[in-house]
Amino acid sequence: MNPMLGVCYYPEHWPEDWWETDARRMAELGIKMVRIGEFAWSRLEPTPGNLQLDWMIRAMDVLGRHGLKVIVGTPTATPPRWMIDKHPDMLAVDRDGRRKGFGSRRHYDFSHLGYREEAARITRILAEALSGHPALAGWQTDNEYGCHGTTYSYSAAARDGFRAWLRQRYGTIEALNQAWGTVFWSMEYNGFEQIELPNLLVCEAAPAHELDFRRYSSDQVAAFNRAQYDILKARRPDLPVIHNFMSRYAEFDHFDVGETLDIASWDSYPIGHLATSNEPDEIKRHYMRQGDPDNAAFHHDLYRAVGHGRWWVMEQQPGPVNWGQSNPDPLPGMTRLWAWEAFAHGAEVVSYFRWRQAPFAQEQMHAGLLRPDSEPAPAYHEAGQVARELAETGIAGVAGQGRIAIVYDYQSEWAWEIQPQAAGFRHGDHVRALYSAFRKHGLDVDVLPPSTSSLAGYDIVAIPALLAWTDALREAVASFDGHLLVGPRSGSKTQNFAIPARLGPDLPQNLLDARVMRVDSLPDGVEIAVKGGGAARLWREKTEGGAEVVMEDVEGVPVLLSQGKLFYLTASGDRALIQRVADYLIAEADTPILTLPAGVRCRTRGGFRIYVNYSSGPQTIVPAEDEKGYVLGGTELPAAGVSVAKLATAG
Amino acid sequence: MNPMLGVCYYPEHWPEDWWETDARRMAELGIKMVRIGEFAWSRLEPTPGNLQLDWMIRAMDVLGRHGLKVIVGTPTATPPRWMIDKHPDMLAVDRDGRRKGFGSRRHYDFSHLGYREEAARITRILAEALSGHPALAGWQTDNEYGCHGTTYSYSAAARDGFRAWLRQRYGTIEALNQAWGTVFWSMEYNGFEQIELPNLLVCEAAPAHELDFRRYSSDQVAAFNRAQYDILKARRPDLPVIHNFMSRYAEFDHFDVGETLDIASWDSYPIGHLATSNEPDEIKRHYMRQGDPDNAAFHHDLYRAVGHGRWWVMEQQPGPVNWGQSNPDPLPGMTRLWAWEAFAHGAEVVSYFRWRQAPFAQEQMHAGLLRPDSEPAPAYHEAGQVARELAETGIAGVAGQGRIAIVYDYQSEWAWEIQPQAAGFRHGDHVRALYSAFRKHGLDVDVLPPSTSSLAGYDIVAIPALLAWTDALREAVASFDGHLLVGPRSGSKTQNFAIPARLGPDLPQNLLDARVMRVDSLPDGVEIAVKGGGAARLWREKTEGGAEVVMEDVEGVPVLLSQGKLFYLTASGDRALIQRVADYLIAEADTPILTLPAGVRCRTRGGFRIYVNYSSGPQTIVPAEDEKGYVLGGTELPAAGVSVAKLATAG
Amino acid sequence: MNPMLGVCYYPEHWPEDWWETDARRMAELGIKMVRIGEFAWSRLEPTPGNLQLDWMIRAMDVLGRHGLKVIVGTPTATPPRWMIDKHPDMLAVDRDGRRKGFGSRRHYDFSHLGYREEAARITRILAEALSGHPALAGWQTDNEYGCHGTTYSYSAAARDGFRAWLRQRYGTIEALNQAWGTVFWSMEYNGFEQIELPNLLVCEAAPAHELDFRRYSSDQVAAFNRAQYDILKARRPDLPVIHNFMSRYAEFDHFDVGETLDIASWDSYPIGHLATSNEPDEIKRHYMRQGDPDNAAFHHDLYRAVGHGRWWVMEQQPGPVNWGQSNPDPLPGMTRLWAWEAFAHGAEVVSYFRWRQAPFAQEQMHAGLLRPDSEPAPAYHEAGQVARELAETGIAGVAGQGRIAIVYDYQSEWAWEIQPQAAGFRHGDHVRALYSAFRKHGLDVDVLPPSTSSLAGYDIVAIPALLAWTDALREAVASFDGHLLVGPRSGSKTQNFAIPARLGPDLPQNLLDARVMRVDSLPDGVEIAVKGGGAARLWREKTEGGAEVVMEDVEGVPVLLSQGKLFYLTASGDRALIQRVADYLIAEADTPILTLPAGVRCRTRGGFRIYVNYSSGPQTIVPAEDEKGYVLGGTELPAAGVSVAKLATAG
């Protein structure tokens, strides 16, 4: 399938006599795919049982007549008001114990069995009514699971579900007491019915208690998705089921949800994502009209892994959004660049959000391809350009395996939120810092789940800040013959959130003769320089053992250890140190790299290498040895520019 | 009526045998007006129905004997403890859903019908008992409506009232669904009984939902005041009914409350108001002992508008207060300056708060004219000086119409709090910035409500950051032959908080051929320089149309557009840009200005021009051409100094 | 009793067959005292009434066999889960009205009578079962009263208790109304049953209302401790009852709790305490691996006063902790230094927390003397060194009365939290600033309670920022013939939190002819320079009267007044001003001082002077005239070094 453009459309927002024109203009622009329906429940079922699906079929008819394919979203993220009267306790309860009300969206509790049945019911109804429609190209389940902090609910439903889940996991209360270490503060339970949720305590809960609640909550999201997946696939096994995930969002395990998806997708809003990130202010200012040069790419590669290779951008930022503290206009060209970058990383579809800016309700300040007065917004023209360029360049193929991989683990995100030990210590920050360091050299980087059982084919694999080894990953590490970077803090716990008997990093001594004796955690702003450049910050381990010291800090504390091709990093590093470590491994592994100007990134897909320029000025690239000219652009990239080189090795 | 001094007095706080001495000293000092009673309910009715008004009559007798006039406050801001047993649900509920308890003040819910009846009852009792007292000069309703965030309550009473109000406003639920755009996220209602208050949602409510709740809440304040007004006026139509408003407080529409007042008043605490404002730290430091040089004046002019020309300062800061994070001593002379400045802007009465510092309870660190040991505090002597100077100078007349006017709109304050789009974007900031820019040139500035239907007589009128045009204002603009400054963001919405069909600023094209295509909102601290000086910040619009470009920024984006005498400002400006724009319009309108040293301000009243020096050092003024000498002070103003010039044109 | 080392041990956390080895290693290391049991309730009584004390007796047997003495903690800080089913309302309610749940520790309400009986019951059971054990050396009541903000509960139990306490205190509701000044805002009560707790009000409660609630809550802690004390002493009057207090924690009156203790102790975590303090960032960075050089010492002297001379460190930081935002590793040697410093200030026992780092539950990142794998952590070796040095030097004797004393008053801590008037004004900051200024000159400083009735024997006594005079203290001041420093803000209120009739500092005029007319409170960061050096900040009083002016600021406002040997400080000072004032009094009192390098401190105990070096580099001390050589170390102190000099005057 050649990559294509899509758009998100809400026929229920507009007079029916506008649909035809809208569809025609979409087709003329080069749009191929249209997502509809994911917030339309109150129009599909205005009162209980009163189903009104005709209008949606008519909308699909119109779109189909113009050659457009349709993704239908199940509307379960926005149950109608009357549903609350049927199930008053389906509303989730926040960590402060307050039940959240109706009037916005995502007002449901994943643990509420009554609502889960309602969600299955409307999914069945849509599957039955629309599965045969010729324009139908697939389904989206719900919308942005977990958005607005909705993964967790501290309700009676969640408590009851959690107790049952624990009983399933541990079998006996003695096993749970052992696993959680409840003897510590007389927290021992006599039975599962005594267990409460870990909110509103006097001080912190046992970390294993918190972690299990996060695992439980994550499992409910996966179960919610699985229910819809099973229904939708039963009708049309051939049509893909998709969900649209988010940026830097880790409240549930996306790999688990990905088990019942055919395609992963995500909603890419580079400017808003940078503004709401924890990046330093100088980066936020510098890229305020572009977004972080590595953040979208990282998520492209992450969701490529979640989707087992198949992934889309379901919502692509088309201009200023409405949900940042401030919402700057993108640099001209960025809505083109972002689409090209997604295609470079293997996206099958990039779908702009939304067709026409809605003049009413919560998102009225969120741009669309059209203005509220139906005139083209700037992104309209840029989308059209991308459509033409896709056709002209004939870009195709998949984003193949890179030479570099990094393991990303949702459980580790939860673990270090629960127990940072140094405020600001995050799993994801370690993963993204390495991702960026490798990518700056033009390397294709893959993201791997912690269930990975083989690392074959990679020059270098990094496993930073991992809570605990899975059996699979331990085996993968043992059998890997490439260069492996582990640490800091990797393997510092068991799966029950306890310190391993032989201390971290909990690898066999024949692999790595090092163990972490002690942690020196540092306030934000304190840095310990490393000899040769860079510095440790936040986290610093003191180790013992016979591994070789590759780098050490000015106090003589080892920073990078090695034993054969296995490297252990003992500290959280600043950008310079992380770059040095990445560079060292690249040199050791003899991995070929590119020289890229500041702000320029690239990725290979099929027989092409796509370059994008995130900087706000022009940059010049040097053609790589494996390239044979450009099918788009050239060596000079203007701000927000894109160049596509053809690879010599390609057909 | 010549301007006069007053004081706030609490006879119930002191032994009755002190009253005589207090009254004598007040009269000797030059005080003419005394406000009493507004917190005395527990002494007027110690137990339900047990009325004890004699002491208040005796206090009025004593004051009257010394020639003092009395304003009696209805005590409805502080219902006694026993009232809570009668009406447990009269206590308001905050946005987090917590009912607020007894033990401070303003512990009532404007929507609670039972308490509204109690408030009417005690008002009737006071009206009956005191209306005939010869010392009575008027009434104050309640005290500082809305103080401590009490305009809004999220109670069942408020919810029920809101539903009834919506039914009244929209007639049908379909009309409400249309107005709020509830189709957006399946938020459609089947009936008014399904509507909840917009708090404790998963994410934000529809902006029209929030705005209507603010309108509803504002209406309850107005209704509360109207009930007392009607009762008080029924007895003594000749006596004025007054309310004391606050600084930078916009939770309800003061113009609406002003409809049932004879005189508006406000409580002026310049130092505390600056300390708790959003002014930059350097301003807070620089004027820490004086207050912002334009803030009291702006409120003088605002409440002059609210009171249809009649207004007082009901509480004037007399020294350090107790409610700031810190509470600095005023610069010597400031309690004189503030009074003179109020008189300059047309105050009929300036009433110091309070006579004697209370040694007990919440405000024990709040200064009075007397210390707790009854010795004079510094402000005692300054108040005496003002009294003498009022007599000596014979200042009189009214604060006439200025050449400049600015529209201030409470609804626009609410709207941009609900939807700032750029954090920090506020209606009031735009109004005050322009106010200050014009006033620095010695110009008299009027504040106008959005119900204004004629702008006749003004050289320049500014309408910044207005949510939506009223019919009246649209007509006023169309018929205005002076210079008009509109924008940024003015007319960017309909009254239902939607984007107008033809986009903002929503004026007829023959008036202004410009429409806002897109908004570029900027993080705090990012500035886009404007050619010629100044910079855009926070908010920046990109427009299309044929209006002439007067100013543009360094990126070539138009900043000030014009079409004839109508100017449209596309951006929020820093101080320099706002000053440039004001200066440009002054030049275009050929409005004569004064040259004032830094920190010096002035206002004309009757045949006088009063100069005040907010700076911490001496300043020299140049006599204006229309002046013929000074009746107080001269060209040299010491720190905190006051000079009063006589105008040549005056009688 | 010669000073000795102890350790905290949790036999319930480890296999019983490890106990023997643990005990042997403790004894070999030089440990003499072991605290056990304070969190073990769920093992002592796994289900209601099912008592299992045998294991604890066996653990005591093992420890005793190795010559170790045992302190048994009552386990009342961690009631087991089944207790909540018996007493669901024993869980405390926070200021926001939320009941706090089970799952961590300290989940009880001091006002809950049912739980108080349960606590007495388990105390009786332990007293009966263990009192005769030969290894038993004493008891610890509960653990860290008030930790995690648990002194205050806003429950029905607390409300009922508060009402009864008020009835006891005031007798009539009229007396309460008078004391609280409830007339101020019609807050008058008709009966005690109308009084509510001072949380969730519209604005602040009357300060006397808040202060009385704090007094009430403090009394409940004292009553809770008294109940256990009485039970434990009834069985074994000879064994000491101890409680372990905390750092910079003032929610209840520790002197009151100290009335039913034989020995005071505290838990000293210098690094965590500095990190969570309000010290400036530069101090936090500078001493990040040592802790504040005066904070541990101040608490040593404070708890020496609370324990009427007898005190321990019950928990001594052994390495990184887990509860700071970050948790740096101590400088090598600090766990030795801290112990030596405690002994210098008279500690009988310094007990490291804990024996072995627990690999599970909440504190798994908190170091112990052993690592989780039972290997020695660095502190293990440092503790052994201390044990040897104690034996070798034969240090003994008590920490005698110093020449300097400072009054510390918990009620004043509460008062200025309730009414800071200048944000950041704290009683404790004034006390600690003076403590540090005197101690930098090598002076021994005593901390005195406000109940002190004689100041005899001191050269200099300071009473800063005192709410109100007690009769005892007023008498002590009147009869003192040394140099006395009072102010700022001392005596500025009555015991009912009202301004005294003759204003502060409320001392007889023959002692001090000065009264505070007015307060100028300053924003953080604003300083008013004092002539000669230093500056006033936060708080600045303007006084009248005939006292002599010793120092004045650049505006001519008196800063230090004197009348004979009584000095009154009118301002909060920066470090430089406080040092100047201390130096001035030292010179006036002719008190001999030492010259110490930066970061070096000392204290005399018995015939020894112990020097400690908190700086991160070596320092050289000059032997004092009263010393005759060193029994440990010498004039050169490395970083974290300790030297012990023998005094010439000693036996």
Automatic annotation (TrEMBL), chains A, B, C:
Substrate binds at residues 105, 143, 323. Its EC number is 3.2.1.23. The keyword Metal-binding applies. GO terms for cellular component: beta-galactosidase complex. One of its GO terms (molecular function) is metal ion binding. It is an enzyme of class 3 (hydrolase). The keyword Flavoprotein does not apply. Keywords: Glycosidase, Hydrolase, Metal-binding, Zinc. GO terms for biological process: carbohydrate metabolic process. Residues 8-392 form the Glycoside hydrolase family 42 N-terminal domain. Residues 403-589 form the Beta-galactosidase trimerisation domain. It catalyses: Hydrolysis of terminal non-reducing beta-D-galactose residues in beta-D-galactosides. The active site is at 144 (proton donor), 315 (nucleophile). InterPro entries: Beta_galactosidase_Trimer (IPR013738), Class_I_gatase-like (IPR029062), GH (IPR017853), Glyco_hydro_42 (IPR003476), Glyco_hydro_42_N (IPR013529), Glyco_hydro_b (IPR013780). Belongs to the glycosyl hydrolase 42 family. This is Beta-galactosidase. It comes from Devosia elaeis. The lineage of its organism: Bacteria, Pseudomonadati, Pseudomonadota, Alphaproteobacteria, Hyphomicrobiales.
